[in-house]
Amino acid sequence: MSVEYATFGLAPAMRAGGVLSNGAYQVHREFMDFVVDGRPLLYRLSDLDAVSPLASDVPPAIFTEHVRSLLLEADAPLAGGRYIIYGCPECEGLECGAVTAVIERAGKDFVWRDFAWQTSETADLEMNGYHGIGPFRFDGEQYRAALERLATGADEPPARRRVLLIGARVAVLAKLAAALRIINIGADITHDAAHAPDEELREYGAVAFGQSVDDEERTAVQAAFARAGADVAYVDGLAPIIPLLVAQIEQALDRSPLEQRRLTRLVAVEGEAGVEVTSTCRVQLISYRLDRLHRTHTHDVFDDMLEPGKHRIVLDEQATKGRSFIVARTMGGVLVAPMVR
Predict the structure, then answer these.
(1) 165: buried, middle or exposed (CB in 10 Å: 19+, 13-18, 0-12)?
(2) For residue range 71-92, what is the model confidence (pLDDT) as tens digits?
(3) CATH topology of domain 161-255
(4) Judging by DSSP bridges, how do beta strands 82-86 and 25-26 pair with one another?
(5) In this predicted model, what pLDDT tens digit does every residue of 147-157 receive, in sequence order?
């Protein structure tokens, strides 16, 4: 069978965690995604919530083992020469389901073929095969170079991010830190970051400010991170609503290039949401609203598949009145916007 060449690459990706509207937690994972012909392979699987085996929270020895496996320097973990391409983000069990493929050599090149959804030791291609994906033939030198850069550390896998929380409302910060830790994001609380050691500041990926933090304190914190040469994102908390703040922090931690994201735009104006996606995917919209007594009300206002492009979605009036905020989620990311009137 003749297979046309495809380009192969790797790029940092994120599976956004969060506190869901039903109270459940979704774990945050950072990983290296496979980029085929300039596009993340995961995006060809429109509604799949999964991560590659090349995740940042995998122990270094196992991470290297996964890289070597993809280079065919170890036996295939599944029958029929099959390898796990994407697996469950919450656990490592095959019973949750995984995308697998046969990886084989073709001369100096590498071929990925017969993609399938697999929940047991053997794959049923007729029933569960991804018939519209692959086969892909990758130039051997390009393929090997990309993976060996990871194995040797020349290209670092995505670092696990920590978040620094600064504010006066200790109870809110403590609840936020606890929620972040549950979903696999390290979080620390401080009132004085200006005198922290530079190496400590460089461990953070984001700084979240409470609404009570004044301009002078913000400036001092930003100056400390600048002196440390730390590349951090700054988050201004919209409201003391834990799921909303978690979503804001997840958005800030997403450093993937805009062209490699599924969800690229969210605006909320006059009871409507404007959403833009780059590939077919499931989008969920959740409204968080504060009433006159500062009580939080949560509403699931939209949950459906969207085709690539811009979409205008009319939201329930009851869910968006007063001071409200919209969180948009896909399987790969999250965006937050206040409702503007």
Answers:
(1) buried
(2) 999 889 999 999 999 999 888 7
(3) Rossmann fold (3.40.50)
(4) unpaired
(5) 998 877 655 55
